[in-house]
C-alpha cells in the first residue's frame, strides 16, 4: 500500500544518492585536473613532434576536460542542487535527473542530464499519458543537502508495494518563493507545454508567444541550454546570441544559463547589439517612433550622399598657367555620379578623386580647343594633379571618410537635415529629429541607425595593423590552447560586429522596431532563431511594418514553428484580473493567459490627492517593503521616474527598484507600487499596453496610487 508519509525517511534516501553523486564529481574533478596537466605536456610535445597518437589523446582529453569544466561551472554557479528529480517507472527502474549527466566509474548513470531524451518523461509524463512513470519526484536542495521532496503519482494503483508519495506541489512551492534580483532556472518544474517548445528542433524560426508571466523568457533560455546540449557542435562554435530589451533585463537573466553549466552564450541588450556604441540618452516617443521606422533607411541613404556640412563648395586649381574651377553645381553632379556607382562612400574616395580630375581635364581640354592651344594629355594631367598635396588636402575635406556617428551628428543640423529630407517628411518631424541628433550622445533607437550607417558607409580603408596588435592577437589565441577551450570561449575573441551566430534568441520581440529588426537580422544571417514575445505588451506603434521587417530578418526561405504558452505563473489571479481590465480594448480574450495561482490578496487601488502623492508613495513603498521578503518595484511613467527616485531616496533599500514601464519589461518583483497609471497611458500611443506591462510585474502584491477617482474605468 502507498504510504503518504515518511518524508524524512525519503529525504534521507535521496540524500544518500546525492552524496554518492557529489563524491563522484569530486573524483572527476581530480581526474580532469590530472588529465589537463598531462594534456598540457602532450600539447607542447605534439607541437614539435606531430605524433598522431598524441593528437587523438589530446582530443580525448579535450572532451573530458570540457565535461569536467562544465561540471565545475555548474558547481560554482548559484542554483538549488545538481540533482533535482527522480523518475520511478512501472518496471521498477529508477532514474535521477539533474543539471548535467554524471556516470560512475563503471559508466552507469548516476544522474541523467535533464536535456537528454531519456529525461523527457520527467517533463512530459502526465496522469493521462504517464509514459510508464509511476512516480515523479522533485528534489529540492540547498547546496549539497536535500531539504525537501515533492511527488506526483502518475499511475495510481500501479505503484510497487511500500512506495512513499510525499509533498504538495513542487510548482506551487517554486512559484510562491520570493524573488531576488536575478531570475532562477526552472529545470525542476518545467511544464509540459513549455517542454515542447524547449525541445523543438533547432532549424528555422521557433516563435513562442504567450501573455505575461507564461515563462517565455525562462523557456527561451532553457531552450538555449537544450540546443547547446543536443547540437553542441553546430551551436557551440559559431555561438549563440540572446538579445533582450535592456541591460536591466540581461542582468536579470544572466544567472540562468550558468546555473545549467552554459556560460558561453552572449547576452546583449538591444542597445549593445553593435560593438562600440554607447546609448545614454532617452528619446521622446515621437522621435523613437520616427527613428525606428523603415523610412529611416531612405533618409540615411540620402544623408550619406549629401555633401558633408563643411565640405568646400568649389575647387580652384592651376594647371600650366590656367586657373581651373569646379563650382558647387558641378561638384554636386560629380558627387551624384560617384554615389550612383553604388559603392559605399568610405570606399569610394579614389573613384571620387578620379571623377574630379577627369572633370578638370575635360575643362582644360575644352579651353584648349576654344583657344586653339595644345590639348592637354589626359593621363599625365590626371597623374600630375592627383599627386599634388593641395589637391589631396582639398579632396579629404570634400570627400570625407566619415564614421556613422559623424553622419548622425551632421543630421542634428536643422538646415542640413531639412535639405536631406527634401519633401519626404513634415517640418515638425524634422525638428524633432534634428533636436534629438543635436544632443551630445545617442539613444537606443539611434543605435540601430548607426549600425545601418556602418553598412551604408562601408568600412574605411584599413590602416596597416600595428605589429604590437598582431602580436597581442597571436598571444591571445595561443592562450586558448585546446580545441575544447576554443569552442568554449570564442565570444571574447570574436571580431567586432560578428555576424555568424548559429542561433539567435530575441526576447520581448514585440518591441523591436523595423530598424532594430534589420540590425538584429544582420547578426543572424546564417542562424536559426528563437523569437519570444507577446503582441499585447507591444510598445511599437506600427506592428505591420515591424512584422514585415521581422520576416525579412529571418530570410525569405525561413520555416516557422509556433508555440503558445497559456498559463501565467507569475501573477496571482487577483493581480492579473486587474491587469486584464486595462487591455480589454486592445487584446482578444485568447491573447490573455490564465493566472492559476490564487493568493487571496486583492491588489490595493488608492485614490490620492495630488498634493499628498509624494508622502503616499513613500509610505506605500515602505509598507510594501515590510509586506514582502523579495524585491519591490516602484513603477511610474518615464517622465515621472526621476522625481520618484528623488522621493524615494530616503526609503533607500537594497530590495527597492524604481523603474519606468518600458524598463520594467521582462522583469518581476514580489511587490509593485504603481504610481499614476494614467500617465503611463498618455505618455505614448501604445500607453495601455505599457500599463499592462507595469501591472503584470508583481508576483504577490500590487498597490496602485492614482489621483483619478475613476481609475481603472
Ligand atoms: N515551469 C515553471 N516552474 C517554475 N517557475 C516558472 C515556470 N514557468 C515560469 N515560471 C516563473 O514565472 C515567472 C515568469 O516567467 P518569465 O519571466 O519567463 O515569463 P514571460 O512570459 O517571459 O513574462 P513577460 O512576458 O511578462 O516578460 C518567472 O519567475 C519564472 O521563473
From TrEMBL:
<keyword id="KW-0378">Hydrolase</keyword>
<protein>
    <submittedName>
        <fullName>DNA helicase IV</fullName>
    </submittedName>
</protein>
<dbReference type="GO" id="GO:0043138">
    <property type="term" value="F:3'-5' DNA helicase activity"/>
</dbReference>
<dbReference type="InterPro" id="IPR027417">
    <property type="entry name" value="P-loop_NTPase"/>
</dbReference>
<dbReference type="InterPro" id="IPR027785">
    <property type="entry name" value="UvrD-like_helicase_C"/>
</dbReference>
<dbReference type="GO" id="GO:0005829">
    <property type="term" value="C:cytosol"/>
</dbReference>
<keyword id="KW-0547">Nucleotide-binding</keyword>
<feature type="domain" description="UvrD-like helicase ATP-binding">
    <location>
        <begin position="189"/>
        <end position="572"/>
    </location>
</feature>
<dbReference type="Pfam" id="PF13538">
    <property type="entry name" value="UvrD_C_2"/>
</dbReference>
<dbReference type="GO" id="GO:0005524">
    <property type="term" value="F:ATP binding"/>
</dbReference>
<dbReference type="GO" id="GO:0016787">
    <property type="term" value="F:hydrolase activity"/>
</dbReference>
<feature type="binding site">
    <location>
        <begin position="210"/>
        <end position="217"/>
    </location>
    <ligand>
        <name>ATP</name>
    </ligand>
</feature>
<dbReference type="InterPro" id="IPR014016">
    <property type="entry name" value="UvrD-like_ATP-bd"/>
</dbReference>
<dbReference type="GO" id="GO:0003677">
    <property type="term" value="F:DNA binding"/>
</dbReference>
<keyword id="KW-0347">Helicase</keyword>
<keyword id="KW-0067">ATP-binding</keyword>
<dbReference type="Pfam" id="PF13245">
    <property type="entry name" value="AAA_19"/>
</dbReference>
<dbReference type="GO" id="GO:0000725">
    <property type="term" value="P:recombinational repair"/>
</dbReference>
<dbReference type="InterPro" id="IPR000212">
    <property type="entry name" value="DNA_helicase_UvrD/REP"/>
</dbReference>
